[in-house]
Amino acid sequence: MTINSKTGSVKPHDELDVTPIREIAQEVLSEVSRVIVGYGEILQQLFISLLVNGHVLLEGVPGLGKTVMAKTFAKTLGISFKRVQFTPDLLPADITGTKIFSQEQGEFVLQKGPIFANLVLADEINRSAPKTQAALLEAMAERQVTIEGQTLELVKPFIVVATENPVEMEGTYPLPEAQVDRFLFKLWLDYPEQDEEVEIMRRQISGELPSVEQITTGEEILAAQNLVNQVYIDERILKYVRDIILKTRNHPQIALGAGPRASLVLMKCSKARAAILGRRYVTPDDVRALIIPSLNHRILLKPEAELEGLDVKAVIKNIIEEIPVPI
């Protein structure tokens, strides 16, 4: 199913047709599932982040297939993919690129780095020094990089999928709050279910990973992003999002609540979720389904709350139950 550029024109929400987005989403997620066992909700949220032009932080123990997931996702989307293994000696130029002297041309020419890809996998992002992380932050925030005084725009669409190992803390650098806030979602990959573990082994018996087909293109993704912007969201749901965010700022167990960027994230991502489910309007369920991945990295608990054994997800779930759902 194709999405042509004409869908970028603004239409009343009752005339909006999001069927192409729903069909592409279904085909992409189905194709990725040929390689990745389980994690259906995680894959859906990855697709949502692409539709709203956002970045994702994946957290989970080693061996859960985070790298394979990102690579397979890019292949089905028909976009370019680069993987960067973050290490303590990684330099900003290793990500952005640098100018090298060409003997043939007799001058310095630009050698672009892996950041000039549509989907960049930043593996173990917290293993690199703050200076390198700052270079990645500019790319994530501004969609551009500066190389020896020359500013270059990145390709579109552009998404960073970063991974973190929550177990090993030696030799790591905590991510700055500003960089963590630039991630649209923080997604936790848990261990597979019992049946899924058996299916993973069964697929490896032949020794060959299933191949996946390209479902869409970068141009269609850009058109889909324009279409998502036109999905209708009612004033009552905007106030519902506001009430949730305000509650995080005034909660007795929260030291640092979510900022205005969190409101925008919830609004945009709810519209994308509605579109991939075939609706041209947002419901409260769209918001509720995305509250935890949108907020769990934007909230800091008070020390006494952590001493009581509470975690961020538990506090967010309590907030969800406390805020009345608009009818």
What's a quick, concise take on this entry?
By secondary structure, the protein is an alpha/beta fold.
How would you characterize the overall build of this protein?
The strands form 4 sheets. The protein has a 5-stranded parallel beta sheet with strand order 2-5-8-1-9. Strands 3-4 form a two-stranded antiparallel ribbon. It has a two-stranded antiparallel ribbon with strand order 6-7. Residues 5-10 have low confidence and may be disordered. It is built from 13 helices and 11 strands. Helix content is 44%, strand content 16%. The chain has helices at residues 19-32, 40-51, 66-77, 92-96, 130-142, 177-181, 194-204, 218-228, 235-249, 260-276, 284-295, 303-307, 312-322; strands at 55-59, 81-85, 97-102, 107-112, 119-123, 144-147, 150-153, 159-164, 183-188, 254-256, 300-301. It starts with 18 loop residues before the first helix and ends in a 5-residue tail after the last helix. Helix 1 (19-32) crosses helix 3 (66-77) and helix 10 crosses helix 11. The protein has 2 domains: 19-215, 3-Layer(aba) Sandwich (Rossmann fold); 230-327, Helicase, Ruva Protein, domain 3 (Orthogonal Bundle). It is globular, with a radius of gyration of 21 Å. It has 327 residues and is α/β, with parallel strands linked by helices.
Whole-number mean pLDDT: 84
CATH architecture of the largest domain: 3-Layer(aba) Sandwich
In percent, how helical is the residue content?
40-55%
Level-1 CATH class name of the largest domain: Alpha Beta
Shape: globular
